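Retro notes (design track)

What went well: tokenization of the new backbones is finally stable.
What didn't: we kept losing track of which sequence belonged to which structure.
Fix going forward: every design gets posted as structure first, then sequence, in one message. First example under the new rule, 419 residues:
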């Protein structure tokens, strides 16, 4: 491209014709910022000039009323399916795969399959935390608490932090999870130095490893990649020496301690198993491997659904709920994965717009939002592996670019592009 970084162009588009009873159209023209890290499969759609955003009420009104209806029996069927399949795979592996080094490839395959299946249980518990599982609140929290505790997730703690993530999507200061480093920050500068010293291919590997393997425990224990507003947080200890900003009330603190009980019970059960077996290896093979794979999936979803080279973040003066929420991206996960994970990656836009909608109604909600707000709905057709590698290499740190609609924080892949 002959355009300089940060330059803009206008792309003529035909005026949209919108009937009175429909949500208002949002744009008659576009202005694109040329993203310094390049383009994703969105081709800059998230950077188009929007002359008027719909209100939150108008966005909700575009979703058919039946999408909000929760079916407890159906939700329980999905919970039982994912959990029973996970347990069955674990029992079969324990019974039939020898704990010998020669069978390491078989155990690795088992971990990949079982961890992928177990992510379905994680998603069900996630729906419980969003009030999307059942109108029976006690049953909903009981299911979510048991499933998340079994996966070493502090249910109520994460419910709170994830609610903040939804309420401040792509907010530079108040966002929660995968808030990017700025180019002036110590971590942003360190990323550039590391990339220059070890080279792009190895940096890509290191960046992906840090996010997809280390990222989840680092987030739970220190609030890694959380917004600067909350400081160093801990999902197990809501008091000093950690920041109390994420859990400011006594009610929230009590729920964190209650979450700890569930996680502690799971850890105790695993410890008893190891003692009875006389070795930690059965626990590591049957539980530990799939656990790491499940963590990989949940971080990958959260990262890729809100991050790419041409998807901006905003500071408080330019952010609002509609703008931030529609920075969510739907992606083309393989059909088997999409089935096992209850469509969390292919209907993530609808999930962020209205998180109380059950996953089995999310496809209909997605189509409604896509039809009502075609200029806002984001879908990137890039294959998941290719998108992951692009984000791992190029999404290093962000810089604000001023526009006539406010600053947009975009990724800069290399320091030489900062000039």
């Amino acid at each position: 491209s002959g355009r300089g970084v940060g330059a803009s162009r206008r792309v003529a588009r035909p005026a949209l014709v919108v009937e009175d009873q429909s949500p208002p159209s949002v744009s008659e023209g576009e202005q694109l910022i040329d993203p310094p890290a390049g383009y994703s499969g969105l081709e800059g759609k998230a950077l188009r000039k929007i002359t008027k955003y719909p209100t939150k009420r108008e966005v909700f009104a575009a979703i058919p009323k039946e999408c909000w209806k929760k079916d407890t029996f159906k939700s329980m069927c999905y919970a039982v399916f994912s959990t029973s399949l996970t347990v069955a795979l674990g029992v079969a592996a324990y019974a039939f795969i020898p704990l010998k080094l020669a069978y390491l490839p078989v155990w690795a395959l088992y971990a990949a399959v079982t961890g992928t299946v177990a992510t379905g249980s994680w998603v069900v518990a996630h729906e419980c935390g969003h009030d999307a599982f059942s109108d029976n609140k006690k049953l909903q929290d009981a299911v979510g608490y048991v499933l998340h505790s079994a996966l070493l997730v502090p249910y109520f703690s994460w419910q709170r932090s994830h609610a903040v993530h939804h309420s401040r999507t792509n907010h530079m200061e108040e966002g929660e999870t995968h808030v990017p480093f700025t180019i002036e920050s110590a971590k942003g500068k360190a990323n550039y130095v590391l990339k220059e010293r070890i080279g792009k291919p190895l940096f890509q590997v290191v960046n992906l490893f840090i996010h997809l393997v280390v990222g989840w425990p680092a987030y739970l224990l220190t609030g890694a990649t959380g917004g600067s507003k909350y400081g160093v947080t801990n999902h197990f200890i809501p008091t000093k020496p950690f920041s109390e900003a994420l859990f400011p009330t006594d009610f929230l603190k009590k729920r964190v301690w209650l979450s700890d009980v569930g996680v502690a019970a799971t850890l105790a059960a695993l410890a008893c198993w190891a003692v009875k077996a006389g070795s930690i290896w059965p626990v590591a093979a049957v539980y530990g491997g799939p656990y790491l794979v499940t963590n990989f999936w949940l971080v990958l979803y959260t990262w890729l659904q809100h991050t790419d080279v041409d998807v901006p973040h905003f500071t408080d003066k330019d952010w609002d709920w509609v703008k931030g929420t529609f920075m969510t991206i739907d992606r083309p996960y393989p059909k088997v994965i999409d089935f096992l994970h209850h469509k969390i990656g292919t209907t993530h836009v609808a999930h962020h717009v209205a998180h109380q909608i059950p996953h089995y109604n999310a496809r209909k909600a997605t189509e409604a939002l896509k039809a009502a707000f075609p200029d806002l709905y984001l879908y990137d057709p890039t294959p998941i592996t290719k998108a992951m590698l692009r984000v791992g290499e190029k999404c290093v740190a962000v810089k604000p670019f001023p526009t006539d609609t406010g600053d947009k924080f975009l990724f800069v892949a290399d320091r030489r592009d900062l000039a």
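Added context from the reviewer: The first helix runs from residue 56 to 61.
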